[in-house]
Amino acid sequence: MENTENKTVTIFVISDSAGETASKLAAAIMAQFPSVDFSLYRKTFVKEENRLKEALEDAKRENAMVLHTIISKDLVKTALAFFEENAIYHFDILTSPIEEIERFTGVQRSGEAGALHHLNENYFNRIEAMEFAVKYDDGKDPRGFLEADVVLLGVSRTSKTPLSLFLANKNLKVANLPLIPEAHLPKELWEVDSSKIVGLTNDPDILNGIRKERMRAYGLPEDTSYSDIEKIRKELAYAAELYEKIGCVTINVASLSIEETAAMILSALHLEDHSYFTTEE
């Protein structure tokens, strides 16, 4: 790649499967340069040499750097030759660690593209966890608290639903309950082990801005009781008092992404991310 000032940085993700691994790496890289303009292209399910060559020619034409996850030794060889011939920056995410494991264990790779996405028991467990999160979202059925791996509590707009679905994708059954000072708390909440409960909170000013934006999105006046700063402070105080009474973990999501909050929950509750492993009874 040329080092040209004020030029958009183009990244090509080339994969023989869905390209999720390389795309996540690209996203992590781009996040480090908020002032830089990026253009990201995804070339996925590239399993034949002619498709690979087309993707490589496109990358060359766009003067791109290439992140690739290709398992076939022959396709990797073709790609490396092209990169060297055309002086294209590239990063092979899979080959080096796979070769090291082959060397260390004496076991050869399967060579199967997309092996991560097998429809195995682990996959169906994840689907079940996602269905669970939808069924027991927003306290629809408090009985779900007793079956959940994690119970999320929080006032409105503390990311309960997105977190429930994100954690479900890690094979965890998650139920959540919105906290409203005037509302009755379900008796099932007091039957749950407090080590499974996470109380979510936020900064009043940030929550005020989020709720105002929510009202605007609905085409309604932004200044309502829902977004009133004093009411928000009372809601948060009520939540904090409840969390202390329960004795649960509390996390302030004000400056956290969903991914960061989820990682903190896994760590605090000593849970493992089983999304890449088959569960064995």
Structure commentary:
The protein has nine helices and eight strands. It is elongated, with a radius of gyration of 24 Å. Strand 3 (65-69), helix 3 and strand 4 (90-92) form a beta-alpha-beta unit. It has 281 residues and is of the alpha/beta class. The model has no long low-confidence stretch (mean pLDDT 92). The strands form two sheets. It has a four-stranded parallel β-sheet with strand order 2-1-3-4, with helices on both faces. The protein is 42% helix and 14% strand. ADP binds at residues 154-161. Belongs to the pyruvate, phosphate/water dikinase regulatory protein family. PDRP subfamily. Its EC number is 2.7.11.32, 2.7.4.27.
Question: Can you give keywords for this protein?
Answer:
alpha/beta, 4-stranded parallel sheet
In the predicted model, the low-confidence regions spanning at least 5 consecutive residues are none
* Helix share bin: 40-55%
Q: What general outline do the C-alpha atoms trace? A: elongated
Proportion of residues in β-strands: 5-15%
Number-wise, the strands total: 8
Main beta sheet: 4 strands, parallel
Radius of gyration over alpha carbons? Answer: 24 Å
Tally of helical runs = 9
> Which structural category fits the helices and strands?
alpha/beta
Series of secondary-structure elements, N-terminal to C-terminal: EHEHEHEHHEHEEHHEH
Kindly state the mean pLDDT as a whole number?
92
- Distance between the ends: 50 Å
- Report strand order across the widest sheet: 2-1-3-4
